[in-house]
Amino acid sequence: MAIITFSIDGEHYSAREDQTILEIAREHKIPIPTLCHLDGLSTVGACRLCLVEIEGSAKLQPACTAKPVEGMVIRTNTDRLKKYRRTIVELLASEGNHQCAVCVVNGHCELQNLAYEVGLDHVRVPYLFPSKRLDATHKDFVIDRNRCVLCTRCVRVCHEVEGAHVWDIGGRGINCEIIGDMNQPWGESESCTSCGKCVRVCPTGALFEKGATVGEMHKERGFLKYIVTARNKQQWIATAHEEE
Fold first, then answer.
1. Has residue 175 been placed in a domain?
2. I need a surface site. Which of 34, 90, 142, 205 has the fewest CB within 10 A?
């Protein structure tokens, strides 16, 4: 595999030509925000929070899918990017019904953390206050679509890792929402294995365990890469997870 050289924020780096900008940035502790991306799942480039500037291109590129080429000049933290990222988080906040003070993942929410990072102290656009459904028919879990940001992590982990494909996206535009099976109550799903993977990878309080109280639920999302690695190598490496 060929090795290429390029620069990120004025510093020179080298990497394999098959690596994405996001992978390289994380290897070198360069902060680039993400929401839909999660190690172990396929990349969809949906949230657009990881956009970066590439010299010579007027178009911003998602770092999770874009790969650098020889001599490329990449910028990850310009004023333009900061403005775009703040706007994205602002729109996500306005499109849902996010009540952090009474949420089970208050203090452990990726959207909340992003709001702090981008300096979101108020929302400049009108709140939409959509009428979203809450489904508590499952014996162990709840889906509250009011807090969903349509990152599709639950869809991908259920399909790609668990192999059940319970979740999908229904509707269009502002009416898009996560649906189970053929848009039936979660508790009536015959394909759901009750594994809880979708709950653990959800970045917000849209999916949570029954019985969790305000600020109580802390989601361990790092489990996924160990499962995927173990399956690829046809071995179980839970002990490696426990040692870290």
1. yes
2. 90
Strands 61-62 and 73-75: unpaired
Q: What is the pTM of this model?
A: 0.90
Cβ proximity of 49 and 61 under 8 Å = no
Amino acid at 55: E
Structure tokens at 14: 């080298």
Domain residues for the domain of 194 are: 131-243
Strand, coil or helix: 186: helix
Q: What is d(CA 178, CA 183) in angstroms, rounded to the nearest whole number?
A: 9
pLDDT, tens digit (0-9, with 9 covering 90-100), for 164-209: 999 999 999 889 999 999 999 999 999 999 999 999 999 999 999 9
Using DSSP's 3-state secondary structure scheme, residue 76 falls into coil
- Which residues, other chains included, contact 60 with Cβ-Cβ below 8 Å and sequence gap of 6+? 51, 52, 53, 80, 81, 84
CA distance 135 to 33: 30
Query: Both 234 and 153 in a single domain?
Result: yes
CA distance 42 to 210: 28
- The number of distinct structural domains making up the chain is 2
